[in-house]
Write a structure and sequence with these properties.
Elements (H helix, E strand, L loop, with lengths): L2 E3 H4 L22 H4 L16 H14 L41 E2 H18 L7 H20 L4 E6 L2 H4 L15 E5 L5 H17 L5 H20 L4 H5 L14 H15 L2 H9 L15 H14 L6 H14 L9 E2 L5 E2 L6 H21 L2 E3 L53 H5 L2
Antiparallel strand pairs: 1-7, 2-3, 3-4, 5-6
Length: about 450
């Protein structure tokens, strides 16, 4: 068995990506949440090879391509324009804003909230190294949290969790600016619970509250107050939102792992944001999964373990020792030279978890590896198991192809949204109807 320490882990360079999904109608992976859980950190010279500074700037641009609502004058992705300005009208509330999901014109709050949590965690851990991109990271977070706040406060007793009928939308390939499909509104409530989506929303708001604590204390307080209320709803009214909403979220974003991981994740974030022992006590009552070897929009156990292990390492708090052990058990299931590994790697050295949109797992898991290494470095901590790292996504692979749009000499040509495959409104002002976008644009 090899001894794993922070120096070995820190060889793992940051990786960034825009990925594509293979099947829109099956268990989805490359969502806004999945393909954009990029790593906002630098472990080496940002002007090195690959140039991580360039990658950071371009990955933040992705979020502008996914924006819903009225776009600001600072919008840099100019092939997008205002869209979804009547979102929420069917429920007589304002649900404008937020992000479209993947290639869709649908707003799925479950993965969107996970994206927001991860952007916030990335900014909290590595904000000092983001340089000029820090304000852009905050802007990306706030575009989501402004929308999530509306969803959490528009109607007492309800949490709105999505806009747009995915089954209808999936039959179209049209620009967001041309949407003529029904903008159905979906929510969870006491009688139709959604502990998973509520727990994730609470996590997103709590994590973001820390991002804005110094730069906008008033907004930070609003985020935290709302996070507490949403988390109380998640804890009090138990149930999976998949069961409540059915085909409105399945098979697209079913809560396959159940809702206990989101309850744990939300409580972990609220504990970090408030230091309120109530959330720690609740954590001990939630079912756990120490055998997981994945981290994604659906399964948050590993992320919660790493977040809580921070307390054990940095604060020397023995009450969190079990989470340190679980976090390290997860690491040993990932690293290929570990005797406990349960993770496959391609011949080129890329982590392989699932066949659809695999890069989502690569980036999110690598974030956990690198962030835990940061905690290890701060405390001179180490543990035993094997290690091996490869910088694959930015082009260090057998075909020398970057998997990030616009990065390197060889890369995919379009970001993952249908609008990027269609001409902009300024170049093609005529309406492109629901079916008209497939030929020639989609099939090109």
């Amino acid at each position: 068995m090899l001894k794993l320490n922070h120096k070995l882990i820190l060889q793992n360079k940051p990786i960034w990506h825009f990925c594509k999904y293979q099947n829109m109608a099956t268990r989805r992976g490359a969502s806004l949440a999945c393909c954009c859980v990029f790593l906002l950190f630098f472990m080496e010279n940002v002007h090195g090879n690959p140039n991580y500074g360039e990658a950071l700037a371009k990955s933040l641009l992705f979020f502008q391509g996914q924006r819903s609502g009225r776009l600001p004058k600072t919008q840099q992705i100019t092939w997008r324009s205002n869209s979804g300005l009547s979102d929420g009208k069917l429920a007589q509330v304002d649900l404008t804003g937020g992000y479209y999901d993947a290639g869709d014109n649908v707003k799925f709050n479950f993965p969107m909230a996970f994206t927001t949590t991860m952007l916030s965690w990335s900014t909290l851990e590595y904000g000092k190294k983001l340089g000029s991109q820090l304000s852009n990271a905050r802007t990306s977070i706030r575009w989501a949290t402004d929308y999530l706040l509306k969803c959490a406060t528009a109607t007492p007793g309800k949490l709105y969790v999505g806009v747009g009928d995915p089954n209808v939308d999936h039959k179209c390939w049209e620009r967001p600016e041309d949407m003529d499909t029904v903008r159905s509104v979906y929510s969870v409530s006491q009688s139709s619970p959604g502990s998973d989506v509520a727990g994730e929303t609470a996590a997103a708001l709590a994590a973001a509250s820390m991002v804005f604590k110094k730069v906008d204390p008033k907004y930070s307080s609003l985020l935290l107050r709302t996070a507490k209320k949403v988390m109380q709803f998640a804890m009090q009214y138990r149930g999976a939102y998949s069961d409540s909403l059915g085909s409105a979220v399945c098979p697209f974003y079913c809560s396959y792992s159940g809702y206990n991981d989101e309850l744990m994740w939300g409580a972990a974030w609220l504990f970090r944001a408030t230091n309120d022992v109530t959330y720690f006590n609740f954590l001990k009552s939630v079912g756990d999964d120490s055998g997981t070897d994945i981290f994604s929009w659906d399964n948050k156990y590993a992320g919660a373990h790493v977040l809580l292990a921070r307390r054990a390492l940095l604060n020397k708090d023995k009450n969190f020792e079990q989470y340190r052990q679980e976090a390290e058990s997860f690491m040993c299931k990932i690293l290929p030279n570990s005797p406990m590994t349960s993770t496959q790697y391609t011949q080129g050295g890329l982590m392989f978890k699932l066949p659809e949109s695999n890069l989502q797992y690569v980036t999110s898991i690598t974030f956990l590896l690198t962030t835990y290494a940061k905690y290890m470095k701060a405390t001179q901590h180490n543990f035993d198991c094997g290690n091996y790292v490869v910088d694959y996504i930015l082009g260090v692979n057998p075909i020398k192809m970057s998997y990030m749009v616009g990065f390197g000499p060889n890369f995919p040509g379009r970001i993952h949204h249908r609008g990027s495959s269609l001409p902009s409104v300024s170049n093609h002002p005529q309406n492109i109807a629901c079916d008209d976008g497939f030929q020639p644009f989609f099939y090109s």
